[in-house]
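User: Could you go from structure to sequence for me? I need the amino acid at each position, not a summary. Structure tokens:
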């Protein structure tokens, strides 16, 4: 398989279950689902899309295998939080995460964003490596709704 066969598309209601399932899969593998997860995953329209955010999906053979969201932030510096990035374990290592990352960065730029923010955990080595390769750098910020968060990063869009 090459990543050329992967289609990146905008979220639509038919992908709601896949958006939730892809994220629950990795979160439950490494951590525990938290209240903030359920808010976003159970209600992507009201929690993300209706507030000016975006969700993209990666499709392989017309099946959703990856996703990533941009959550609009009410922040002096950051325009969007990059969140809920997931790629099915059955298909990881094929460059799909990289395609998703490029697509969300391009989407943020097209919306005039200057800064992206994300929260993660350093045990997710492939994710942290992807963020760093994209240009994200570690920052110190205050509160986070996630107990699992032990690293916060930002990216200045140019």
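Assistant: Here is the amino acid at each position, in order:
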């Amino acid at each position: 398989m090459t990543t050329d066969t992967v289609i990146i598309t905008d979220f639509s209601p038919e992908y709601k279950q896949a958006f939730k399932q892809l994220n629950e899969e990795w979160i439950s593998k490494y951590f525990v689902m938290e209240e903030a997860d359920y808010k976003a995953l159970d209600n992507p329209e009201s929690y993300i899309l209706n507030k000016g955010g975006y969700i993209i999906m990666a499709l392989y053979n017309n099946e959703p295998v990856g996703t990533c969201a941009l959550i609009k932030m009410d922040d002096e510096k950051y325009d969007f939080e990059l969140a809920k990035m997931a790629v099915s374990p059955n298909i990881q290592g094929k460059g799909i995460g990289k395609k998703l990352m490029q697509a969300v960065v391009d989407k943020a730029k097209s919306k005039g964003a200057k800064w992206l923010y994300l929260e993660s955990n350093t045990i997710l080595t492939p994710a942290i490596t992807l963020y760093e390769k994209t240009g994200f750098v570690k920052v110190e910020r205050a509160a986070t709704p996630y107990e699992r968060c032990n690293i916060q990063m930002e990216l200045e869009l140019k």
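One structural detail worth keeping in mind: The beta strands are 6-10, 54-60, 63-72, 80-87, 115-120, 137-139, 151-156.
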